[in-house]
Structures are given as C-alpha cells and as structure tokens.
Amino acid sequence: MKTKIRNIHRPIHIFEPGAQYFITFTTYQKRKSLNTDEKKNVVRESIMNAIEKHGIVLNAWVILDNHFHLLISSISPEAIPQFIKFINSRISVLLNKMNNTPGVKNFYQYWDRIIRDEHDFYTKINYIHFNPVHHRYCKDPAEYVFSSYKEYLEKYGVEWLNDCINNHPLNTHRY
Questions:
Q1: Which of 13, 16, 24, 91 is deepest in the core (most CB within 10 A)?
Q2: What does the pLDDT read at residue 14?
Q3: CB-CB contact of 92 with 107 (8 Å)
Q4: By CB neighbour count within 10 A (0-12 exposed, 13-18 middle, 19+ buried), where does 130 fall?
C-alpha cells in the first residue's frame, strides 16, 4: 500500500471546540482577482452568509485584492472546515460567473493559526485592521471599507481602538 506524503506547505488543519482562529485565504498564484469593489462585495457577502449558515462567530475581517483574513471561532470544531469549504466554493463559483470563466481556480489554499491568548487575539484584530494600511490601500484604516474596522469604531469608539493598538501593538518585524 502506498502512503501519501503530505506536503510540508499544506499542514493538517486541527480545530478545537470554542477556540479562535486567524484564517488567511490567498488567491491562486496571488493574482489580484479580488481587485474591484464588486468582487470584494461577493467575498464579503459570501462570508456573511456562511457565518450564519455554519454558526461561526466572526470577530474581525479584511478583504484585499489577493487575500483576505478572518478571525473566527465556533463551538463546533467540524463547522470550521465546512465554513471554509463553503466560502471557498461559493466565492469561486460567483467570481467565475462574473468573469465568465467557469472552472477557473481562484484560491490556492488557506492557512489557520489558533489564537493562544487575549494578547494574541487583540494583536490579530490590529493586524487585520491595519492590513490595508500595510499594503498601501489607505493611510488610515477608517478609510478602507472592506474591513471590520468601522464596525469596531462604531461599537467601541476611537479611544478603545487606540488603546487596543497601544496595548497590543503589531509585531513590527512582521509588519
């Protein structure tokens, strides 16, 4: 019997009940295939439909031209891979329909990282919210519409967001 050797760049995804995960989806060959507001809206709407359908808690999100990040959790660990499969499939079908390119591969894979503690959680929120600034889409995260930053601004206010970045700064060697 032949044993399948797993690619080291595609690790096994392990999900724990109630754990929080930082998820990154990258477009196939890092193409800028999410480069219009209409395409980013397809991604956002697909994510919002999927969280409802699969009982996922979405803590933060951002959508850029060639990747998107999600900070999610679920009581049911099997819901997360179902959620990921659903959004990958749904987004691909809708993008291919928009581009009149049936069957084109839109995403290569996704990466997940379990959140280890409260500091890690808030650092990931900051990472997500400042990702458009890092990639030079804008100078202030409040300017970027395809992110949960404005939701946090409305819910918690600018003082809370400033405290969050001051108390949980981004890892500067990665950012």
A1: 91
A2: 74
A3: yes
A4: buried
Q: What is the pLDDT of residue 77?
A: 80
Using alpha carbons only, what angle is made at residue 126 by residues 123 and 128, rounded to the nearest 5 degrees? 110
Whole-number Cα distances in Å, 163 to 9, 72, 74, 154:
36, 22, 27, 15
Determine whether domain 20-167 maps to CATH 3.30.70.1290: yes
The sign one gets for the Cα dihedral 90, 94, 99, 103 is positive
Looking at every residue in the chain, the average pLDDT score rounds to: 89
Residue type, 36: T
Whether residue 35 has pLDDT greater than 80 = yes
Contact predicate 68/43, CB 8 Å = yes
**Which of 130, 134, 156 has its CA nearest to residue 142?**
130
